[in-house]
Amino acid sequence: MKVYLLGAGPGDPGLLTRKAEDVLATADVVVYDYLASPKLLDLCRPDAEILYVGKKGGDHTLPQDKINDLLVQKAREGKIVARLKGGDPYVFGRGAEEAEELLEAGVDFEVVPGVTSAVAGPAYAGIPITHRKYASSVSFITGHEDPTKAESSIHWDALAKSASTLVFFMGMKNLPMISKNLIAAGMRSDMPVALVHWGTTCRHRSLVSTLETVAEDARTHGFKAPSLIVVGEVVQLRDTLNTFERKPLLGKGVVVTRARHQASSIAEDLAELGACVYEFPTIAIEPLADMTHVVAAIEKLPEYDWLVFTSVNGVWHFFAELNAMDKDTRALGGLKVAAIGPATAEALEEYGVIADFVPEKYVAESVVEGLLERGAGGKKILIPRAKEAREVLPDELRKAGADVEILSVYETVLAESGPEEIAEAMEAGEIHCITFASSSTVDNFFSLVKPEVLKKYTGTVKLACIGPVTAKTLESYGFTPDIQPEDYTIPALVDAVAEALAPKQ
């Protein structure tokens, strides 16, 4: 039994330490806080017990003494416990109090430090907390002291007279008092002050003011907890060094409707541009229960002239069965191979297969035209694909005299996604765009979210489709896409979303 006190970092999941990641991957129980990124839970074991004990604005899901008891209890059950805390456990995180309780209970524990928001939040806002020209020291101060203490332990005179950068945690409710005390202690009223809200996350924003006006500016611009208060000359560098806030999608909520195992690429690309990504997989990709027909088709591959792949999923499932039969790409000897687009072609390359043909336009109609130009009319063609798919490609090839066989290698089913989070986020004005990468994502989205619900947000929530086929499906539900790239690819879709949502200069 052991408890690890893990620093989750300030919010950007990429700032988690390697050691903390290793602990999360092996822990039996994970006890996490409000400020720890939910994305970090994806690193946990699928069978791990996940317990939320967050505290937000005085609303405690579980009081601190009960959290302490919970850690002891789970450890005594012989479990490896990861206590995931926002920032660093020992920087205003009450991690030391939890460590003392564990020590008293005889429970083995280890601390894994995390990146504190006091450093990372200002850095993302373009503010170095020390600088040879402006500040050679820094002070971290709580803006919310223990209410049971007889008197404040903060020496305002010392803080006001020092040349240190001052970083206040949990101080937004007391911001007027903090400003007043520093000015009264002798700090000049025009000293630069910055507020950093949800630092390092997609909801990050900052504001620069002065000691005298910052409380009023905070009210005007709606700055609330969680926000850091940074006081000092280093704040002058914010406009010069601030690159993070120039990300085109920062603060924009974008829904990704692809299957969960495929959503990571588009989600990562959108997040890199600053978006708050809501993964809402409307479809799940599953292998067929009976693959005997696939085995039979693979056994007679030499009889075909062309092998045409219309999706990455078709590639993966076809080659999974090929490998399961102890065969490799040598089984494709003599066949020509086509891919409907660059992503599908790249998937083939992972198996050592270079496509003989990839159309310039990534739709079935262009594939037909290109195949016919290459003499596929009258040839025998095998198309590994989803169980349910458009018939344009096989129908048009058959009209040209080709002998086409459809090979179902997987199926798309409705994912078990709860629409409540998306509906609530739209109601709160946090969703700015919904992306659709295939017709099936459109159909299944509206199986989960009724069209009349989405119609309430026409004009505020933009709809992005990867191409004309998907757009046509969307139109069947009464919606016209706001965004559609010229190239029917995921990177082009991401670029089109960024162009549409980015603040106009």
TrEMBL record:
**Family label:** Belongs to the precorrin methyltransferase family.
* Entry annotated with the keyword Methyltransferase: yes
What residue intervals traverse the membrane?
Answer: none
In what residue span(s) does the Tetrapyrrole biosynthesis uroporphyrinogen III synthase domain sit?
265-494
GO molecular function terms here? uroporphyrin-III C-methyltransferase activity; uroporphyrinogen-III synthase activity
Which UniProt keywords are listed? Cobalamin biosynthesis, Methyltransferase, Porphyrin biosynthesis, S-adenosyl-L-methionine, Transferase
A single GO BP term for this record reads: methylation
Q: Which Pfam families match?
A: HEM4, TP_methylase
Protein's gene: cobA
What EC designation does it have? 2.1.1.107
Q: Where is the Tetrapyrrole methylase domain?
A: 2-214
The biological pathway it contributes to is:
Cofactor biosynthesis; adenosylcobalamin biosynthesis; precorrin-2 from uroporphyrinogen III: step 1/1; Porphyrin-containing compound metabolism; siroheme biosynthesis; precorrin-2 from uroporphyrinogen III: step 1/1
Decide whether keyword Transmembrane is in the record.
no
Give the protein's recorded name.
uroporphyrinogen-III C-methyltransferase
